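Collaborator request, handled under Task 6.
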Amino acid sequence: MIYQEEKLPSLIYDDKPQWIELYQKAWQIAFGNIETDVPEGWLTQLTCMPGSGTIWQWDSCFLLFYARFSNNTLFATNNLDNIYRLQREDGYISMAYNIRTQKPAFPGRINPPLYAWAEWEHYLVTGNNSRFERILPILTRYFDWVKANRRWKNGLYWFEDSGSSGMDNAPRGGWGVPSLGGSDVCYIDLACQQALSAYYLAKIADTVGDKQIAARFICEYEELKDLINKTHWSEKVGFYFDLFSSNKVDYRDNFINHKTIAAFWPLLAGIASDEQAKRLLEHLLDPNEFNTTHPVPSLSKDDPNYEPLGGYWRGGVWAPTNYMVVKGLKRYNKLPWSREIALKHLDVMYKVLAHDNYGSIWECYSPEYYQPAVNAYGKLVRPNFVGWSGLGPIAMLLECVFGLEFDASENCITWVIATEGRHGIENLLFNGRIISLICQGKSHVPGETQITVETSGTLKLRLSLMGQSFIREYELEPGAHTISI
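Structure tokens returned to the collaborator:
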């Protein structure tokens, strides 16, 4: 497939034309990373690392979150379908597969189970729920396999080691376990990811009319939510930790004393109470912890293992975990802080792109310097990584900086406006409609903000200004509209 700018949504951002350049660069690299040389029966797919011969589970899920804005020019669900077809009869799905042999690249291991979340978010933009009936049994079997094989008797979850969690060299207390027998560590992220899966599996089941499965997953979600808060939460620190437990019944107050970005998965999964979310935000805003020059580091700055140059998962700033954090903050209506993290992330990404020595979009970034991160061996990480690093210039810009939220189930776009000057998006395919949304005016002054909308079909539009309590709703017919708020 060839990059054709005219087929993609056009970005408008008069105050930051450099970010339009970053946005376009992300799409260009993404199209350059499409793999067409695949086995018979295998679908053309996106990749972070062309020619690597491997397809990764959680990479493929995160690719979808920006590719869903491609007006169907990038078929992000192809990656997921390539993986689904390799599921074992018992429900197991490997963390990665060798594309040529179509065998697990790391037999017996798993990756963060994010399929249900990704599939639902894809639906919210495209309006295509035709996949749900087919994938619901696949994702149910996978949920059940993880529950049966990666859960201790006390109900807590384990990865084989930090590598399986996706946070390769993070100091999470685990070690390599060739026997796959566990490492006496209960991982906060896997427990939350299972809860997140249950939450969205209930939505998918409800959409296809299977009330029994929907009710089952609502119960799974509530049970995990209660257990996570009873076990992984430290009231003393105001933070979620991994903990040592194995099959011990007494798992309380046995925390692993490293503050990692994994602790923010409870926000995305809706696990945290409002008070817990408030305390997590305090850690995000602390310059000695997660509020670095380029937030959010994968490891707290006050950890003795933290590396200012990144050191991969010992401080590196990663697009997928940043996306998880900002989406979690939005779920708790902490929009200014979600936006601030996105702004800083994009600012650094552009400065690195414009730098004579770097000039690309990278796998991850230093938390303290305007440069790519180094890996665990002190070498620069991979360039041209779109890949999940496309999340910032595309998905985070639209959702967190511009403040757009999409819900095809209600044929509704919600826009909480916080950006000054003329900005917006044109030629976006949403729920089968071509949409253009442009804001002109002062974003914080009611009555002086003007919105122009063009839609090829009926559309519900909800508008607000960040920091204001009002929400105004409009039922729009096909055509052009001008709205003042």
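The cover message to the collaborator said: "The first strand starts at residue 10 and ends at 13. The chain has twelve helices and 15 strands. Please let us know whether this matches your experimental observations."
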